[in-house]
Amino acid sequence: xxxxxxxxxxxxxxxxxxxxxxxxxxxxxxxxxxxxxxxxxxxxxxxxxxxxxxxxxxxxxxxxxxxxxxxxxxxxxxxxxxxxxxxxxxxxxxxxxxxxxxxxxxxxxxxxxxxxxxxxxxxxxxxxxxxxxxxxxxxxxxxxxxxxxxxxxxxxxxxxxxxxxxxxxxxxxxxxxxxxxxxxxxxxxxxxxxxxxxxxxxxxxxxxxxxxxxxxxxxxxxxxxxxxxxxxxxxxxxxxxxxxxxxxxxxxxxxxxxxxxxxxxxxxxxxxxxxxxxxxxxxxxxxxxxxxxxxxxxxxxxxxxxxxxxxxxxxxxxxxxxxxxxxxxxxxxxxxxxxxxxxxxxxxxxxxxxxxxxxxxxxxxxxxxxxxxxxxxxxxxxxxxxxxxxxxxxxxxxxxxxxxxxxxxxxxxxxxxxxxxxxxxxxxxxxxxxxxxxxxxxxxxxxxxxxxxxxxxxxxxxxxxxxxxxxxxxxxxxxxxxxxxxxxxxxxxxxxxxxxxxxxxxxxxxxxxxxxxxxxxxxxxxxxxxxx
Length: 532
Hints:
Elements: H1 6-21, H2 33-49, H3 56-68, H4 75-82, H5 99-110, H6 122-144, H7 149-167, H8 171-185, H9 207-239, H10 246-258, H11 265-295, H12 303-319, H13 327-358, H14 365-376, H15 387-407, H16 411-418, H17 422-440, H18 449-452, H19 454-459, H20 463-476, H21 486-493, H22 497-506
């Protein structure tokens, strides 16, 4: 911590003051008036060069006193003016007391004492400092401005501010203290006051002292703010991992700090992003453990999945422009991917169990499937920002598993079991699925296009008609994982390997077409193939 050395500053002031007194020492009684006028003119020029040109009335009074006292104020006169006994100044090596030293003692005594509860009333204390400094400068400047009054006052002010800086620890009060210097001390409210302009006090400000103190104050404010951010984020992590407003409180915590000091905004933002990165690492680790437990329950509680996805999306939007290295976005995206993976696994588990039974029986497993899916998506309407993302994942997965289970069951078995047009049954199921999901999230994209074309495929009487239907599937389902099952669907219909290849060759010029594997490998991933 910086400490002020009053003695080290007082002595240079004394030397400076001697410069303005030198000319008067050689003016003896009886000198010609012309000589005296020349010396007096030199004294006035020295004052002007130092930036201390006075208003005429004050300059005349000051000049009269200079003439009466030989151009200087004695220690006795200064002591009387200041109300300080000369012996009150502890001098070094027996040196006599000086005017500058007396001014320093006077100011040290006149400054308001720092109260114990200064952080509760810093505004009032600084107002007291302002009133004291202004009152004494206006009162004493006519006699002492050339004796180092302003320099001593400046030194004493920053000594006092340094004492306050060691005590104050609240961010708001540190900011108040930091702003007091440019907005009050260097303004018309104090050094810039009209009654002091004849002394040009701003030019007497020690800019090195000002800069050093400001740097120390900003550094302390920065450290206090970062400690505050770290503690606040930790508190959010402890109490809000299962609440919807985690992203709101997190963003507000950081924004409140970034808005405090424009001069520190860039440094604060970089540090806040570092604190947020540490926060996100802890948050994502805790969330992953929580979501694993929720996913392994007999009835998974997917609301936690939606909440987490919503928090991730909001945090991603917030940090995208601030995350220069991309570390924050990376960790959030990883959390999103993990959450969606667990959600898909939960949906897939329900769909596999229900649809496996559905294609082997005549019971109501499809309606039971919708009931189970409805339970998984029950909390989704409360999270509008992630509704479409979640529903797209669920819809695509349900349609794909339905199609996969369909082609894994012999067509002849389905015709026997369902006592109906299989194609028509599949179309009805696809429409029911879309209607059900649309009620949960209106406007959801239809991912049932492949299922809706199954009826047309089964009714295609020739290979040419089959090619046309397959081409329509290719166009409508472009980019869908369902197209990977097209060869299996063609074989399920009853096409031979060569016919399937012919259909595939016919589709080669369509956008997004990929040549499928050999017929023997189409169902290698289906251990239940040809089940009935």
